[in-house]
Design a protein that fits this description.
Layout lengths: L1 E9 L2 H17 L5 E6 L4 H7 L5 H9 L2 E6 L12 H11 L4 E8 L15 E8 L7 E6 L4 E4 L4 H16 L4 E6 L5 H14 L6 E6 H10 L6 E4 L1 H13 L10 E3 L5 E3 L18 H13 L4 H16 L13 H19 L5
This protein binds nicotinamide-adenine-dinucleotide (NAD), 3-isopropylmalic acid and manganese (II) ion.
GO molecular function: 3-isopropylmalate dehydrogenase activity
Protein name: 3-isopropylmalate dehydrogenase
Enzyme class: oxidoreductase
Length: about 350
């Protein structure tokens, strides 16, 4: 069987890191009975340049017909002031595929420990479960007049319920601890989240459930990140906290994500943006993209075995200090990617049974 993957390379460093991710995908699937076909489609700024729209109809069609979508990053100064921005395209594809659950893991592996700005004594391994298709990103009314601008934060019971179940189900497979992050001391939407999440928590007696206000949570992510297992939060808070959490690994350029709905293809992308400041220099950190490929192999294609080979390859590479400048190294995107691929190949070679 051949699976179909829609590939959205996007803008600025997007194509650079996508190339790295696809090279690793090709290397890790070689001879492993995993056949795939790539469908490279215009999206974001590249979509605007090629078709006038950030999410061209053919791109959405391809995504809907695929088994998974791989996205690098979109946006940047080139499209400042256009009526439909690359970011509109990103929000539109999330909505159109009903990708309401965005999973953003923060893990500081032993190999990454030396790059972390945090002096941890305990392991850091938590997941942010971010609501992705509602809240202030999508609420109506939304308008700008001569005198004011208006955004609306709105959540329905059902929107909160479905993301809450994702978080608790995930906690059951992890360390059984969910922390709801909100601003329930001020916002009505947060008060509703607290009410609904507390109700659902009673269905999961094995899960420890607690809450934190978002301002304090942002402190705790720095002060004691090991206390978290699953952080459940609304769209905007999840956006902000996940960049903060990412930096505890040493760089925003290391964290992947999965966005999923109830059925249909999931979408995998780094949590960071198109990094216009380093684009074209060949020094973008490919880890976030390569780990997004690994997440795709695990969650869309049931190939955790291949994902583990990728993760091991990354760990060996960073342990050896072959890292890009964001992590303080001198390696280029290409050198890092080649080193990861070499580790994958070498470890396969050394485990090959002897044929006599
Ligand atoms: P950014 O995440 O692109 O960059 C922030 C900083 O982190 C920059 O200094 C950048 O060089 C660095 N960085 C990010 N990824 C890196 C990597 N892989 N390797 C090394 N360094 C890396 O955020 P920004 O500069 O605020 O936004 C730039 C554009 O990206 C904007 O148009 C924004 O809307 C867009 N954006 C897109 C996505 C997405 O496609 N999912 C996500 C976030 C931002
Ligand atoms: C992200 C990005 C997007 C978001 C932007 C580019 C619309 O920051 O994926 O984290 O805010 O969701
Ligand atoms: Mn973001």
């Amino acid at each position: 069987m051949t699976v179909n993957i829609t590939v959205l390379a996007g803008d600025y460093i997007g194509p650079e890191i996508m190339a790295a991710g696809l090279k690793v995908l090709a290397a890790v699937s070689e001879g492993q009975n995993f056949d795939y076909q790539l469908h490279e489609m215009p999206f974001g700024g590249a979509g605007i340049d090629q078709t006038g729209e950030p999410l061209p109809a053919e791109t959405l069609q391809s995504a809907k017909q695929s088994d998974a979508v791989l996205l690098a990053a979109i946006g940047g100064p080139k499209w400042d002031g256009v009526p439909q921005t690359p970011e509109h395209g990103l929000l539109a594809i999330r909505k159109a595929l009903n990708l309401f659950a965005n999973i953003r893991p923060t893990e500081i592996s032993p190999a990454m420990q030396k790059y972390s700005p945090i002096k941890n004594t305990e392991p850091v391994d938590f997941v942010i479960v971010r609501e992705l298709t509602s809240g202030i990103y999508f609420g109506k009314p939304r308008e700008t007049t001569a005198d004011y601008a208006l955004d609306t934060m709105r959540y329905t019971n059902e929107e909160i319920e479905r993301i809450t179940r994702v978080a608790f189900d995930m906690a059951m497979k992890r360390r059984k601890h969910v922390t709801l992050v909100d601003k329930a001391n001020v916002l009505d939407t947060s008060k509703l989240w607290r009410k609904i999440v507390a109700q659902i928590a009673t269905e999961y007696p094995d899960v420890t459930y607690d809450t934190s206000y978002v301002d304090a949570a942002s402190m705790k992510i720095i002060a004691s990140p090991s206390q978290f297992d699953v952080i459940l939060t609304e769209n905007l808070f999840g956006d902000i906290l996940s960049d903060e959490a990412a930096q505890t690994t040493g760089s925003l350029g290391t964290i992947p994500s999965m966005s999923r709905g109830t059925d249909g293809p999931s979408l995998y992308e780094p949590i960071h943006g198109s990094a216009p400041d380093i684009a074209g220099k060949g020094i973008a950190d490919p880890i976030s993209m390569i780990r997004s490929v690994a997440m795709m192999l695990t969650h869309s294609f049931n190939r955790a075995d291949l994902a583990t080979e990728i993760t091991d390859g990354i760990n060996q590479t960073v342990a050896a200090g072959v890292v890009t400048p964001d992590l303080g190294g001198k390696a280029t995107t290409d050198e890092m990617t080649k080193t990861i691929i070499n580790h994958i190949k070498e470890s396969r070679h050394s485990y090959e049974p002897d044929h006599v």
